[in-house]
Write a structure and sequence with these properties.
It is built from 12 helices and 4 strands. With 239 residues, the protein is an alpha/beta fold. The chain has 2 domains: 115 residues, Rossmann fold, CATH 3.40.50.10400; 82 residues, Helix Hairpins.
């Protein structure tokens, strides 16, 4: 248990941005694990990757400058800058900006070396996205073994996605609303197979384009909620 006395707060920086969602996921997990390790030692830590990334995925829609301003504001309230030397830290635009700002503030800066054992531990950790990552890995392996990858361009995958979605709809053609809600076990299995085909094409396409399907889905839900806000009954407003 941490005591209630005020303690210094460290800011933990690290590289994050990368076109590959798997690398971003790895970096976020590594930093979060390090935050946990430091907290266990009684060191209070704020980290943008641990605290901001989950919020951003819910639909903040922050760009680089938005988070830079916020992170520098948080850094100015901390007592020390720590940075995790994950691969690519030297070229990280955000991390270099944090280090430059810390120097302006006169804050101590300390590097945290990353041991191979730590990297191995992170690489074997599961995450909410790990199930999707495993599916994408199996899809890519299947296509590579059968020499299908030359046909799996984003264009072809998007067209295949439409075909597979239409095959789902075929099972519901000419039946009533009531019948669609009470499919027989055999019919439900047929629909499940078609849905799996849709999901395979969707997962494969998002991987080909380097799109984080979990992140964009969270963001899209927030966009829909903003576009179609809940309408409060007039009677409640008047009360």
């Amino acid at each position: 248990m941490l005591s209630n006395e005020l303690k210094p707060i460290c800011y933990l920086g690290a590289p994050y941005s990368d076109p590959d969602p798997k690398i971003r996921q790895f970096r976020e997990q590594a930093v979060t694990q390090k935050v946990f390790d430091l907290w266990k030692k009684g060191i209070l830590v704020y980290s943008p990757l641990t605290h901001n990334c989950p919020v951003d995925r819910l639909g903040v829609f922050g760009d680089y400058q938005t988070w830079l301003d916020f992170d520098h504001s948080m850094l100015s309230r901390c007592d020390k800058l720590l940075f995790l030397k994950l691969p690519g830290w030297e070229k990280s635009k955000g991390l270099q900006a944090e280090m430059a700002f810390a120097k302006q503030l006169g804050l101590p800066i300390k590097a945290i070396e990353v041991e191979p054992e730590f990297l191995e531990k992170i690489s074997t950790m599961e995450s909410p996205e790990s199930a999707l990552s495993q599916i994408v890995k199996k899809i890519n392996q299947m296509c590579e073994e059968r020499d299908w990858d030359s046909f799996n361009s984003p264009k072809n995958l998007s067209m295949s996605l439409q075909v597979e979605a239409s095959e789902v709809a075929e099972h519901f053609t000419w039946i009533t609303e009531e019948q669609s809600e009470h499919l027989s076990p055999s019919k439900k299995q047929e629909v499940a197979d078609e849905l799996a085909d849709v999901f395979i094409n969707l997962a494969h396409l998002s991987d080909k384009l380097g799109i984080d399907l979990f992140a964009v889905t969270h963001q899209k839900i927030e966009k829909i909620k903003q576009r179609y806000p809940i309408k409060i009954p007039v009677a409640l407003v008047e009360d």
